[in-house]
Please model this.
Amino acid sequence: DQQVKQNSPSLSVQEGRISILNCDYTNSMFDYFLWYKKYPAEGPTFLISISSIKDKNEDGRFTVFLNKSAKHLSLHIVPSQPGDSAVYFCAAIHFLNTGFQKLVFGTGTRLLVSP
Amino acid sequence: DADVTQTPRNRITKTGKRIMLECSQTKGHDRMYWYRQDPGLGLRLIYYSFDVKDINKGEISDGYSVSRQAQAKFSLSLESAIPNQTALYFCATRSQAGNTGELFFGEGSRLTVL
Model:
């Protein structure tokens, strides 16, 4: 049961253009959504997050949009740079009453930004 | 130096062998996690620990065990490795004070079981 889905395994974009990475989820109880970025031979690193009570969060070139009615979030990178080429993981977190925060990852989207 | 360090970074072993992956962190975080990454499956949680005396199974704990030797150290063991445990393994940490779910990952340990 894949609660967080990234249906596009890869995306190619030209430098300077917008990159849009998409993520769909099934669990309406998720409290936070996060994007992680992973370069080869490195661990994932946190990029940006959004609370379920918001619909947009912006940090420099990165903006995450949340559409709760559609259970969909997206990461926009503008303008895209070759250094953005990496695998991007969408993740969702649910705060349980026990104090445990269940974090569920998507399968990842490989972004390639060409010069 | 990395805040979350995993050893070994790469390991090739044979079916039936015991293997241990080690993780140490200098972030002072109380919560530590072990994930595995497989192509097309994302990251899946194997075990997690909230402190030295607290160990919990994740979604794919069968065939694995863990030990939290100290707040800074969390090791993952495969008692009898099998080929479908070939994967990239990540250790991660998080502060109890954090409320956004941000994890800090190590660089990964690539394990191949022949």
